[in-house]
Amino acid sequence: MEPSSGAPEPAASDGIVSQSAAGTTADDAGEETKVPDVIVEEQRLNVHHRAKYISINKYKEVVKKLTALRQSHAQLYDEKQSLEQDMEERINEAVSSERHRAAVRLTAALAERTEDYDALVEKTQSDLRLATRKHSEQLERARHEYFVQTKHQEEQIEALKAANARLEREHREEIKHYKEENQSLLDGLEADTCEREKIARQVEGEMERTKLCFEEKELLKETLFEKEAEIENLKQQNMELREQVQLTEQLNEHHNERIEEYERESEKRLEQELHRSTKERKELEERHAGDIEERERKLEELLKHKEAALEEARLKAELLINKVRQHEEANEEIKRLTAEGNEKTRLQRELDKMRATCDTLDNDLQARKVTVAALTKENKRLQSEVDRSREQIEEKADAHEKAQEEIKILTEKLQKNKAECGAMEETLRERDLKMERMKRRSVSLEGRLKEVEELEEALRKEKEKRQELEKNLEEAKGSMRMKEAELADALKALAEQKESRDRFERMYCEVRDSLERTEAKLQETIKVLPVLPTPFGQELAFLYRHMRAPPPRHDKESLESQHALRERWEAEKELRMDLERVGKAMKGRIDELTAETKMQSEALLKEKNLRGSLETRLKTMAKLLDDKEVEFKKAAEEKEKFERELSKISDALRKREVELEEILKAHGDASAANRKLEGALREKHTNVERLRDAFKQKWEHRERAVLELHRNKEAAIGERQRAMEALKSRIEAQAKLLEESRKREKKLEGELQRSADERSALERLLAKRNKTIQELKRVQARSPRLRTAPTQPSVKHDSRIKALEKSVRAIPEILRSIHALHAKHRDSEELKRGLEAENEDLKYVLETRYPLRRSEEVKEESVSLSPREQPSTRNQTSTTSSVALGSSRSGSPPSSPGQVCELFVR
C-alpha cells in the first residue's frame, strides 16, 4: 500500500523539492550529460521497498478493534462480579444447613455409643469366666507332659552310655589300624622323595639346555629383524627409483612435445617470412624506389625475432643438459642397487646356516618332549597314590574327631546333671549345638574332597592344554604352507615388476640417445650459423636436416646390458623370497620353543608345591593321632567317674521330683483361685479405663478439628489477601506496559507519517530526474560526441540518495517493533484470562471449604448448635465473605488505568 498523495506535506518537504528543482536546473546549465545507471538503481530501490510500507488506515483499524476488545472485557468483568456475589450467598446458606444436620447426627451417635458400652461390659465378664476354666485345664495337661518327658530323658541317658562303650572299642581298633597305615605311607613317601629328587636333577639339566637354546633363539631373532629391516629399506629405495624413472619419462615427454611445437612454430614463421620477403622483393623490383627508413625498420624487426628465437634455443639446450645429468645420477643409483643385491646373496647364505641350526634345535626339542611325556606319566601315577592316601587319612581323622566330640558331649552332660532339674534342658541344648558343629566339620571335609577333585580337574585341563598346543602346532604348519603359496604369488608379482622395470629402462635409453642427438645437432647449428651467407637459409637447412633425420635405433650392446640386468633382478628376487621364507619359519619355531619352555616350568612348580603340601599334611596327621590317643585314655578314666556320680544324682532327683509334685499340687490350687479373682477385677478395671480414654480422645479430637478449621480459615484469608496483592501488582505492571505501548504507538505513527511525507517528496524528485534523463538521452541520440563522453554524477543528488536509503532502512525496524507490541498485547490478554480463571478457582475452593466466620461463633457452634441461631450466623458470614470478596474482586485485571485507581480507593 502506497501513501495517499493528497495528504498535506510539511515545509521541510517543500524545501527539499525546491532544492532538487534548483539543483536540476544548475545541472542542466552546467553539464549536458547525466548518468543513467544511478536512475536505474533508484527505481530498483523504490520497487524493493514499496512492499514494506504500511498504511495508516490499516493501523487505525487495528486500534479500533483493540478499543472494542477492551470494552467487551470490562462488561465481562462486571458480569463476573455479580455472579460471584450470588455464589457467596448460596454457599453461606448451604453451610448453615449442613451445620444443623451435623449437630443432630452427633447427638444420635452419642446415644448409640452408650448402649454399645453397656453391651461390651457384659460380654467381657462372660469372657473372663471362660478364660479361667481354660487356664486350669492347661495347668493339668502341662504337669502330665512334664512327667512323661522326665522318663524319656532317663531312657536316652542309658542308650548314650551303651553307645559310648561301643564307640570306645571301635576307636581303639581304628587307632591301631591308623598307625600301621601311617607307617606304610611314610615308607612310600621316602621312596617317592628319592625318585622326585632324581627327576628334579634331570629337569634342572634340561632347563639349562633350554636356556641356552632360548639365548641362541634370541640372537637369531635379532639377526632376522636386522635383515628384514635391510630388505624393507631396499624395497623403499626401489620404489623411490621407480617413481624417479616415471617422473623423468613424464619430463621427457613434456620436453619432446614442447620441442615439436617449437619446431612447427619456427617452420611456420620461416615460411611466412620467406613469403613476405619474396613479396617485398617483388614490390622493390617493381617500384625501383622506396622508403629506406621502412626497409631498415623491417630489417630491425626481423633481427629482433631471430635473436629471440636464438635465446629460446639456448634455454632449451640448457634444459636438455640438466636432463642428461639427472639420467647419469639414475645410472649411479642402479649401480648401487646391484651392489646391494650382492649383499643380499651373502645374507641368503647366512640364512641357510641359521636354518641348519634351527633343524638341530628341532631335533633336540623333540627328544625333550619324549622325556617330558615320561615325566608326566610318572607324576600322574604318584599323584593318584597320594590322593588315595590322603582320602584314607581324612576318613580316619573324621571318625576320630567324631568320637572325641561325642565323648566331650557326654562329659559336659555329666557335669551339668550335678545341678538341679533345670540343668538337664541346658545339656540337651548344648548337645544340639555340638551336633551342628559336627555337621560343620562334615561340610569342611566335603570341601577338602572338592579341593582334591579340583586338583584332578586341573590336571585334566593341563592335558587338554597340551593337546591344544599340539593342534596349534599342526595349524601353524598348515599356515606356513599357505604362506609359502602366498610367497610364490608374490614372486610372480615381482617378476612382473621386473619386466615393467626393464621396459622403463629401455625407454630411458631411447630418451637419452634422442637427447644426445638433439644436443649434437644444436651444437652443429650454433657452429654453422655464422658461416652461412643468410640467416633464413641456415634455419631452413637445420629444420630440413632435423626432419629428414632417420629415427634412433637400438644397439646390440644396450640389449645385452638390459638382458644382464634382467637376470640380476631375477636372482635378487629369488634371494629375497628365500630370506622371507626362512625368517617366517624361524619366527614360528621360536614361538613354539617359548611356549613349550613355559609349560614345562609351570608343571615343575606345581609338582613341587603339591609335594611340600602333602609332606606337611602327613606329619601333622601323625602328631594329631598321637595326641588324640593320650586324650582318649584320659577321657575314658573321667567317663567312669562321671557314670558313678550320675547314678547317685539320678537317685536324688527321683526323691526330689516326688516332693515337688506334692508341693506343686497344693500351690497350684491356691494360685488358681487367686488368679481367677485378680484376672476378673483387672479386666473390669481395664475395660472401664479403655472406654473412658476412648471418650476423652473423641472429645479432644472434636476440639482439635474445630480449632484446625478456624486456623485453616484464617490461613486461607491470609493467602487470599496475598493473592489479591500480587494481582494488584500485576495489574499495575500491565497498566504501565499498556501506557508504554501507547506511547510507542504514537511515536511509530509520527515516524510513519514522516516516512510517508519523505517518500512523496522523493517520488517527485525521481519524476523530475526521469524527465531530465529522458531529455539527456534525446540529446545524446542527436549528437554522436556526447555518447562517448564520460559521465559524472552530481554531488547533491548522491547525498539525497543516501538520505533516502537511510530513511528506507529504518522502516523495517519500525514494522518489527509494531509487530512485537501486538504480540506483547496478545500475551498480556492471555495472562489476564489465566489470572481470572485462577481467581475463580481460588474463590470456589475457599468458599466451599473454609467459609469466613469469627472464632467466637466457631466455638459456640462446636459446643451446641440451635436452629434459631442460624440466621444470625448466616448474616455474619455473608458480611465477612462480602468483605473478603471485595478484596478478591480486584484480582481480575481491569481494562484501563482508571479502573485500577478505583480499586485502590476501595
UniProtKB/TrEMBL annotation:
Name assigned to this protein: Uncharacterized protein
Keywords carried by this UniProt record: Coiled coil
Keyword Cytoplasm found: no
Species this protein is from: Perkinsus olseni (Perkinsus atlanticus)
Coiled coil regions in record: 66-93, 150-184, 625-694
Lineage, broadest ranks: Eukaryota, Sar, Alveolata, Perkinsozoa, Perkinsea
The keyword Coiled coil belongs to this UniProt entry's keyword annotation: yes
Biased composition regions of type Basic and acidic residues, renumbered to the chain: 853-862
Polar residues bias (residue ranges): 867-876
Top-level taxon: Eukaryota
Biased composition (Low complexity): 877-893
Residue numbers spanned by region Disordered: 1-35, 263-289, 778-799, 853-906
